[in-house]
Amino acid sequence: MADSTRELSQAPESTTVVVIGAGPAGMTVANLLQRSGVDCVVLERRTREYVAQRQRAGIVETRAVRMFDSWGLADRVLGGVPHQGILELRVDGEPHLVSDYDGSEGPTARLCPQQMLVQKLTAEYLVNGGDLRFEAADVTLHDVTGDRPTVRYRTADGELRTLTCEFVAGCDGDHGISRTSVPDGTLTPYAFDHGIGWLTVLADAPPPAHPLLAVSPQGFAAHFPRGPYTSRYYLQCPPDDHPDAWPDDRVWDALRTRLGDPALVSGPITDREIFRLRSLVHDPMQYGRLYLVGDAAHIVSPMGGKGMNLALYDADLFARAVRDSVHDQDDTALRTYSERCLRRVWNDQEFSHWMTGMLHDAGDATNSGPFRRGLARARLDRLFTAPGAARAFSELMTGLEFGESAGPPR
Ligand code: RFL
Question: Does a structural domain hold residue 211?
Fold first, then answer.
């Protein structure tokens, strides 16, 4: 086919919601809309294989498990191993177990690597007839402040396509086009750089008995399960450090020292990168008929494991709001979408910021200063000994501090 033919665009197609991005946010929105009987089309710029392999988060918190459960999806898309609700905080080699079990009835958190969740959400959506288009390039948004937005993109074959819709769900992460399509000055960004780097390493090595966060004079370290024979590790490092400065031997030596475990079993390292701990909130999370969902609207530093879980929360609120609008002509939930999401976003930012400060300051006194180290150790002591502090911590870990989800689907 000649290039000039490919440039000819097909007649516009019509749907109710165009979802940009097939990560945890986009695939959750797509499944919940499908279950609500609302048409949607998902556009993903990468291949299915690429998206299915992207490894990041590992725990779906209790609130999010109950959200999927309320949609009849928990067993279909989570699978995985129930998380025992125990987290180990190891301070100078001494273990302290804290629980995220808050005493409430119902299913609890699951160990479910992010890529498994995305794979299962994708399979569930497709088996039920969902429309998901991979390798959608050059996505652009038009008329999102009008009644009928348009989304244009180019297929892998180079054809231009146009979709008209009622709503656009911007689920394309921090580097997507949804947020950058909003005119400058419309959204207010609130950004914070923690001044901390983490080396993150994925290895074929035995997982820990419980997710493990360690404080040591040499800096912070962590060890998380990512599968029966897979672990993710984190090591605090200067934010401008380079992964090449961390050959395998240095990684395993540092982990053994900081985790206080000379017998830690090593294994082949399959991925290694360094990133800065940063936090970001965009307010509002809406512009006309474009709704930002997940990382497209906010980034949470990984401490506390909230980023993906927030994306799932936004997705649930958005899908319910669209369902109300489409089936009942009730736009109340759409109008309050941004405000309701941001309440939890700031709550989780605060939790993550609190934990980040506590677990880094409590370690290397040269890094944070002896006074901050003293404060951080006092916070840890309170967490290990005061029942009220432990209870507040477990509520924040479960995500149930505001009660459960937005209510059962109709
Ligand atoms: P994602 O996962 O970035 O997915 C966005 C999707 O949009 C696609 N896309 C586009 N598609 C079409 N057109 C475009 N122009 C597009 N631009 C982008 C992308 O290809 C992709 O498929 O965003 P989403 O869905 O909002 O999900 C957010 C989560 O991925 C993120 O919050 C978590 O991974 C954060 N996070 C963690 N969260 C947790 O809850 N617990 C954790 O333990 C945890 N660990 C982590 C993390 C993030 C990490 N990184 C990224 C630094 C560990 C790490 C290392």
Answer: no
Measuring from atom 37 of ligand 1, which residue has the nearest CA?
Answer: 57
Question: Domain span at residue 26?
Answer: 13-84+108-189+279-364
In this structure, how many other beta carbons lie within 10 angstroms of the beta carbon of residue 73?
Answer: 18
Both tokens assigned to 181: 């399509």
* Structure confidence at residue 312 (pLDDT): 98
The one-character DSSP state at 260 is T
* CATH at residue 360: 3.50.50.60
Ligand 1: distance of its center to the CA of 54 in Å? 9
In 3-state terms, what secondary structure has residue 284?
Answer: coil
pLDDT of residue 406: 47
Measured distance CA(301)–CA(398) in Å, rounded:
17
Cα 387 to ligand 1 centre (Å): 35
Q: How confident is the model at residue 80 (pLDDT cuts 50, 70, 90)?
A: low
Ligand 1 centroid from CA 246, angstroms: 25
Q: pLDDT tens digit string along 286-326? A: 999 999 999 999 999 999 999 999 999 999 999 999 999 99
In a domain, 221, yes or no: no
384, part of any domain: no
For the chain, the domain total comes to 1
Task: Copy the structure tokens of residue 295.
Answer: 């990382």
Look at the chain and count its residues.
Answer: 410
Domain membership flag for residue 239: no
Q: pLDDT of 31-73, one tens digit each? A: 999 999 999 999 999 999 999 988 888 889 999 999 999 999 9
Contact status, residue 222 vs residue 302, Cβ threshold 8 Å: no
Contact criterion met (CB below 8 Å) for 160 and 176? no
